[in-house]
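Colleagues,

For the teaching module next term, I've prepared a clean inverse folding example: a structure given as tokens, and then the sequence designed for it. I'd like students to try predicting residues themselves before seeing the answer, so please don't circulate the second half yet.
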């Protein structure tokens, strides 16, 4: 992987940004627009998914970055969970719910893959710096 110098270049952040866009668009539709508590909760979770990646990127260690990436993927799962409540309450069209749910899942999976990459990279770095 090429050295990334901006969080905006991370695929997981780009997907989280798409998730935020989908969620914000959905919050202006149907019954969800009138349920302020649920609307605010899903917006907050989506923003957390995106912003934790950026915040972690600005940290000084890989360990801290991974911790924020974990917060991010957890927030993506929260968005996905909320879509089931939206489905049960018939707040949005099923197509819109599936679109958000799929994007949340893709965001989570990409973030987890990046976490695995960073952990493996850190392990490899530790192996090469050890003396025997």
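(Answer key — instructors only)
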């Amino acid at each position: 992987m090429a050295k990334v110098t901006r969080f905006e270049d991370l695929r997981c952040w780009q997907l989280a940004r798409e998730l935020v866009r989908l969620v914000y668009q959905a919050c202006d539709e149907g019954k969800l627009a009138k349920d302020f508590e649920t609307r605010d909760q899903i917006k907050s979770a989506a923003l957390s998914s995106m912003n934790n990646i950026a915040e972690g990127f600005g940290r000084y260690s890989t360990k801290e970055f991974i911790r924020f990436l974990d917060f991010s993927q957890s927030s993506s799962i929260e968005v996905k969970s909320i879509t089931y409540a939206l489905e049960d309450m018939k707040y949005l069209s099923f197509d819109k719910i599936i679109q958000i749910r799929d994007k949340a899942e893709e965001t989570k999976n990409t973030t987890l893959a990046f976490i695995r990459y960073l952990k493996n990279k850190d392990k490899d770095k530790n192996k090469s710096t050890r003396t025997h």
